[in-house]
Hints:
The structure holds two protein chains of two kinds. Chain A folds into two domains: about 5-220, Rossmann fold; about 225-300, 2-Layer Sandwich (Alpha-Beta Plaits), CATH 3.30.70.970. Helix content of chain A is about 40%, strand content about 25%. Chain A is built from ten helices and 14 strands. In chain A, the strands form three sheets. Chain A has a six-stranded mixed sheet, sandwiched between helices. Chain A has a four-stranded antiparallel sheet with strand order 2-1-4-5, with helices on one face. A four-stranded antiparallel sheet of chain A has the order 12-13-11-14. In chain A, β1 and β2 (about 20-30) form a beta hairpin. Chain A is globular and about 70 Å long. The interface of A and B includes residues 56, 82, 90 and 95 of A.
Amino acid sequence: MPNDSAAIEVEKLTRRFGTFTAVDHVSFQVVRGEIFGFLGSNGSGKSTTIRILCGLLAPTDGTARVAGFDVRTQAEQIRTHIGYMSQKVSLYANLTVRENLLFFGGLYGLTPERVATRQALLFPRLGLSGLDRTLIREMSVGLKQRVALVSALLHDPEIVFLDEPTAGVDVLNRQVFWDLIRELAAEGKTLFVTTHYLDEMEYAHHVGFIDKGKLIGFDSPLGLKVAFAGGYPVRLRHDDPSVLMRAETHLRSAGYPVTVANEGEGRTMRVTLTDVSTAELDRFRHELHAIAPTLDFTDDLPSIEEVFAGMIRRRQAQEEGVQ
Amino acid sequence: MTRLGAKLSRLRTLLWREFIELRRDQFTLRILVLIPVLQLTLMAYAITTDFDHLPLCVLDRARTRETRQLLSDIAATGYFSIRPLTEADEVSLSFGRERCRAALLIPPDFSELITNHKEVRLGLLLDASDTTLATSTEGFLTAIVRTFYTHTRLERTPLTDRNLRPEAVGVVTPVRRVLFNPTLSGTAYTLPGLLGMICLFLTVFITAIALVRERETGTLEQLLVTPVTSTEVVLGKILPFGIVAMGAVIFCIGAGWLLFDLVPVGSTLLLLAVTPIFLLIGLAQGLLISSLARSSVDAVERSVLTMVPQMMLSDFLFPLALMSQPFRTLGEIFPLTHYLRVTRGIYLKGQGFVELWPEIAVLFFFLVLFVTLASRTIKKQG
Lengths: 323, 382
């Protein structure tokens, strides 16, 4: 059933190429105004899913609705509501920045005045001011990517698909990109982003993992990490080992699973919290404070990268176990 | 904006970009300009099949008034320049070289045989490494000698009723009348063929690469996520290159007129009306290739594979009439064959729609066939 708050609804989406199933009964929803990170290794079915959602490829089975429109029957309507930027810089190399924008704007039925307005709005935010007359072929990859992003945003789409927008881009350029992506989300746009830089997924509201055509994980970054670690691991560190010893006894009696590890000269202790609510974290901090005022904790969550790699490894182990 | 208005505005945007790119893309631009100019120059000046003062060695063993008359008749045509030889050995020494592409051997008893109304056998050595040249040499010389023979006999024989009857004179003198291209000008024959070749090159080759390149750079995918329909994308490719190719055809017709004084005997308007049909066939072939090709290199190879047999079997380079039946039949399946019949028909024979409609109908059939094939293949991929 259509959901008003969902920008993208995917239900048992399947795409087969001959006998090969690229996308296998994938279901998820992306809420309006959020950044959705879509992760998957090469050949996982990631690009196929995006191509289906953008109306470039028809699904074999299942349904998908983008901006409330069915990808099978209403691809034409979808196109005016989405922006798409692929990892290849899909601009015309022999055209200037301005000509490219006029061209793509023209295809969306935008007047040159409208293109100029959008350009004036977006260029300063991406540090592109003054580059109107530069030929695309004379620009660096980072700059080209920014122009491509502007080109995908010209018609002010509700939903923006960014397929590896920061591929081959240096750290500084990636930062410029992600600042804009987060601003856009704050303005109410929905952003569907794939990337090879998994640390970028920390910015995402939700993350989906796809592997061998199947969605193997879908949650907030924190949710995924907690699920993978089996709780919320925190790390206690104190210069005085006796303080940590007292804390250990206290926490064990309170029922917390505690592991003690030696790290360097000082002592470090790991505790896994099962409840991740803010109230629980506050209560935990309070208890530590009671033991020693200087005792505090830092989170010891796995990175998205560790979660992603770990989940794929687990799945492989399961498959081998089955066979 | 209405739907049609939006469509037209998108198409205009596509064309606008294509022409900017064409102006900036040196590679395509060079191909577009160079191909017609190069082909025109090469075909018209270098690869001329015109017969002009071909070196002809003559070993005249008779050396009589009659043989001198014969030789001056040959020289007067302007097709040959005569190089007299004195020794039989010289023939084998110089024959085959550039200064002796053909040799004529006159027997010592030439004049006696003529006077006695007997058969005269002349020796003719032909360098058949160039068959066209050899055939033409034989044809020209035979015609000249027969004319000479008849004239001499008429001069020497008192005019009687018997002599004037055709079987006595006319039958043995097949004075060849060359039709349609009376000066046997190679340019006149080549230029209409060239029009076909240029159309083929500019359409098949350029379109095949253009679309594959857009797929490789990812711009095609970018286009397809916009409201542009695939029909508009295809039209956006066909129209600009069609317009450029049409321009090239008009340029060649103009160049033929200015440089070689060649004007179609028939209707130039009909020629210009049939050309777009052939251009569209080529464009559809190019699109078909580009939708099947995996890369630019692949597209180039496929275009060459498409064009070479057409060049070979379309009457452009080698006369179809001289080929064996299977090849002649094969030649019929190439649109170029039919287009060349139209261009040559109009240029050389002054044919009009009445004579050419079957060829035009075949071209229409190919147009429908290739457009259907191309649009089906493109749709299947989308």
